[in-house]
Structure formats: structure tokens, C-alpha cells
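User: Could you go from structure to sequence for me? I need the amino acid at each position, not a summary. C-alpha cells:
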């Protein structure tokens, strides 16, 4: 799971699997993690199985949580009915809530996250949110704004009965949120590098990383790329670490650092591409040597070219590491530590079979075996 947002109160993690994503919001003070189950999961035909995967992955990846709560966020009547079904059949208790959301509100939240820039500034992650240009306002960014504050402002907007959002686009509403938050914040604008005079080494590094047709704000070390040169990255950020400067491409999946022109090797801090993709976990049946993936699907057997790297507990295929190794017993132990939230489950084709069904099957088999015994006599 990836830490995508953090402020003094909260940490927001994002997980991704089977074509869907979900988020976990952790309250720093209480240590409670709230699993956000979005419309993308609730609208899926296998929503129950997907929910269970969210829960299991949260237990596996966030082991320091003191408790787990669930927030179901439907956007239509079908999803609301599925929320009720989840509450009846799956491990949900009094710490679950259903938060119905307008589809446009969800889209705006995603839009705000997509227009977020993060950079490392002397060991501290700093967050910026971009306000796109409109007819009466130039584009700007806000520094160190809490996403959760933006979310609260968005909720206030949608709860205001005087506001009409039907004819407004997602971008227009997001701009309204940022404008309201910016009332007591400094707005940072972008200009041609010819408009700037570097006052220190940090601003000089920003100038050196800016091409002729790019725009830059040297005060915060962020470069807006020339539209004709953009591929995937609209912005670049100059990160600093005690006099070392690194040019980072703002991207969800990776941060690629490049040497900044004008610096010597001793001054330059260069890193490789840093992958943020979630590591895969595999499970090995120690009796049969069968290997299962995170969806509990058998992918092979240890005799088929697989090995274990005992130094870091990773699974290898033909000499190449493909992921870390977990086991079902450790997973069951983690679930048992959260008994107030779950009941023990076993997997079937649909997703789970609970213990009542299991014992019923044992009882039926016992009756059949007893009948067969007396018949044979």
C-alpha cells in the first residue's frame, strides 16, 4: 500500500488490486484505520470478494493499527442495497458507516488528488494543490494544504442548499474549493525564467532545470513544463537535501531523478527510478508445496522452477524474485486479533464459507457415514 497523503491528523493509504483501488484513512491520535469502500468496488459483480480482499490487505500491510473501521460509500440505490447486504453477511460491526455520496462529489475528490504535487524538502514531504486557470483567474498552486481540509470544504459546499452544481464542471467546483481555502494562503504563480533572478543555490537549481519555454516558481522549486514538450509529466519539482538538489518528475507511479545542469558530481544527489508499485505476496502450502497468489488462486508448485530467498523471505522464479512470501496461518492470526470486527472465514468459489456451513457439512457427513455403517452390518 502507498502513502499518498499525510498531515498532522491523518494518513491516507491507497491499495490497488484486480483492477480496483481502495483507500485506508488512519487517524494518528487513535490509531484507528478506516477502510474506504468506494463505488468502484460496490458496483463490481464480485463486490463481496473484493471487500474481503481490502480487509485482508489492510490487516497484512498496516499491522500497527489498533482497530479497523469501515466506511461504505455508495453513489446509487443498487450500491446502497449492496451495502446492506455486506452488513448482513460479512464481518462488519457497529464501527461501520454508510456515507452516501454524489457521483460528482466523488469525481471532484479524485480530481483534487490528481492535481496534487508532492516533493521532498530536507526530509519533509510537502504537498501542493494546483488550481487550473479559468476565465478570470490564472493558474496557481497552494503549498502544504491538507487534502482533508479540502475535503471538508467540499462537503460544506455540497451541503449548502443555495448552491447549484448541476451546470458546473468538476474543474469549476474544484477551483471553487481551492479559492475558498486560498483566502488565508499564499498563491504561487508560474512565470518565464527570464522574470526571475536566483537569490540562492536552491533557486539557481530551479532556474538551471527550467527550459526556455517552461514556466517556473523558484520560491517553491516547481517547474511547469512547456505544453509542446509534455508527455506524462506536466510538472517537475526540485527536491533538496542539505545542499543536494534532485529533479523529480511528479507522477503517481514513479519518481525519476535527473542531474541538474550546472552542478558538479559532488553537489548532485542522483537517485534511480523509485518504484511505488505494491509488492505481490505469495502463499505456500508447506504440505503440498503448492503456491497461491493474493487472490488464493494456485499459480504453481515449488517443484516447477520456484525457489525461496531465505535472506529476505522472497519467492523466486527461475532465479528472479517475484514477491514476498506470506502464509495462511499468519493471516489467520492477524484476523483473530480483530475478533470484534470479523468472524473467521474460509474461502470458496464465491468468496467465503462461514463456520456454521462448515459444521453443517460435517454433521451431514457424519450422518451419512453412520447410515452406511449400519447398512453394511
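Assistant: Here is the amino acid at each position, in order:
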Amino acid at each position: 500500500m502507498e502513502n499518498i497523503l499525510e498531515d498532522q491528523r491523518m494518513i491516507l493509504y491507497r491499495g490497488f488490486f484486480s483492477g480496483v483501488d481502495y483507500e485506508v484513512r488512519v487517524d494518528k491520535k487513535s490509531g484507528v484505520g478506516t477502510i474506504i469502500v468506494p463505488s468502484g468496488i460496490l458496483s463490481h459483480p464480485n463486490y463481496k470478494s473484493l471487500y474481503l480482499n481490502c480487509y485482508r490487505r489492510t490487516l497484512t500491510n498496516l499491522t500497527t493499527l489498533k482497530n479497523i473501521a469501515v466506511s461504505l460509500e455508495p453513489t446509487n440505490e443498487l450500491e446502497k442495497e449492496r451495502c446492506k447486504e455486506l452488513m448482513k453477511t460479512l464481518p462488519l460491526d457497529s464501527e461501520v458507516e454508510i456515507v452516501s455520496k454524489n457521483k460528482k462529489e466523488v469525481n471532484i475528490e479524485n480530481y483534487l488528488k490528481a492535481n496534487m504535487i508532492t516533493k521532498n524538502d530536507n526530509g519533509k514531504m510537502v504537498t501542493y494543490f494546483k488550481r487550473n486557470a479559468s476565465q478570470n483567474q490564472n493558474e496557481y498552486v497552494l503549498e502544504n494544504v491538507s487534502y482533508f481540509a479540502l475535503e471538508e470544504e467540499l462537503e460544506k459546499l455540497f451541503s449548502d442548499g443555495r448552491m447549484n452544481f448541476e451546470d458546473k464542471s468538476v474543474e469549476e467546483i474544484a477551483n471553487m474549493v481551492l479559492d475558498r481555502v486560498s483566502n488565508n494562503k499564499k498563491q504561487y504563480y508560474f512565470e518565464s525564467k527570464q522574470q526571475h533572478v536566483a537569490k540562492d543555490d536552491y533557486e539557481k537549481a530551479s532556474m538551471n532545470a527550467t527550459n526556455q519555454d517552461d514556466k517556473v516558481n523558484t520560491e517553491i522549486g516547481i517547474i511547469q513544463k512547456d505544453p509542446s514538450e509534455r508527455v506524462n509529466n506536466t510538472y517537475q519539482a526540485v527536491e533538496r537535501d542539505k545542499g543536494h538538489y534532485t529533479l523529480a518528475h511528479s507522477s503517481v507511479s514513479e519518481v525519476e531523478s535527473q542531474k541538474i545542469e550546472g552542478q558538479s558530481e559532488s553537489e548532485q544527489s542522483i537517485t534511480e527510478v523509485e518504484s511505488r508499485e505494491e509488492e505481490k505476496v505469495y502463499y505456500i502450502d508447506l504440505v503440498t508445496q503448492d503456491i497461491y497468489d493474493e487472490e488464493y488462486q494456485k499459480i504453481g508448485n515449488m517443484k516447477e522452477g520456484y525457489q525461496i530467498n531465505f535472506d529476505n523471505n522472497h519467492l523466486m522464479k527461475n532465479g528472479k524474485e517475484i514477491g514476498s512470501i506470506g502464509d495462511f496461518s499468519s493471516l489467520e492470526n492477524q484476523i483473530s486479533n480483530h475478533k470484534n470486527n470479523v468472524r473467521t472465514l474460509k474461502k470458496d468459489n464465491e468468496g467465503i464459507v462461514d463456520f456454521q456451513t462448515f459444521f453443517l457439512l460435517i454433521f451431514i457427513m457424519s450422518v451419512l457415514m453412520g447410515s452406511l455403517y449400519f447398512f453394511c452390518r
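One structural detail worth keeping in mind: Confidence is low (pLDDT under 50) at residues 251-278, 330-358.
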